[in-house]
Write a structure and sequence with these properties.
single chain, mainly beta, four-stranded antiparallel beta sheet, 1 helix, 8 strands
C-alpha cells in the first residue's frame, strides 16, 4: 500500500510552497508524524510530517522546486519483500512445549519459583510480629 503526502494549505492566500530541504531520502524508513521535508511559502516556513509509517519510495518534487497546494511531493509505502514469504526460521520447538508450558506428559519443563521469606525460618510472609518474636 502506498500513501502520497499532500502539500497542505498553510494559509488562506497561500497557493504554493518551495521545497527547501528534504529531511529523508528515498529508501529511508519513516514513522508516522516524523518530519519529511521543509517547505517555504510567502508567509511561513515549516516541516511536513509523514502521514504514515513506511519507507520513502519516491521523491516527486526536488529541493528548490515549487509545488502547488495539494501537490504530492513524496510517496511512502511498505517495503518490498526481500526474501521468501516464510520469515520464520526453521528451528525446532524445545521439548516440553517451551519454558513453563506443559509438554506431552502434562509436566512443566521448569519448576515454578517458590515464595521467598524476608526473614529466614519465619515463613513466607515474614510479618513484623514474626520478626519481633510474637
Amino acid at each position: 500500500m502506498t500513501v502520497s503526502v499532500t502539500l497542505p494549505a498553510l494559509g488562506g492566500s497561500v497557493a504554493e510552497g518551495t521545497i527547501t530541504r528534504w529531511l529523508k531520502q528515498v529508501g529511508a524508513t519513516v514513522r508516522a508524524d516524523e518530519p519529511l521535508l521543509q517547505i517555504s511559502t510567502d508567509g511561513v516556513d515549516t516541516w511536513i510530517p509523514s502521514p504514515a509509517s513506511g519507507v520513502l519510495l519516491e521523491i516527486v518534487v526536488d529541493e528548490d522546486e515549487t509545488a502547488e497546494v495539494g501537490a504530492r511531493p513524496v510517496v511512502i509505502g511498505s517495503p518490498a519483500p526481500t526474501g521468501p514469504a516464510n520469515t520464520k526460521p526453521d528451528v525446532p520447538s524445545p521439548p516440553g512445549g517451551g519454558f513453563g508450558r506443559p509438554g506431552a506428559s502434562g509436566h512443566r519443563s521448569h519448576p515454578r519459583p517458590r515464595p521467598c521469606s524476608l526473614f529466614p525460618g519465619r515463613g513466607a510472609r515474614g510479618t513484623a510480629s514474626a520478626a519481633i518474636g510474637r
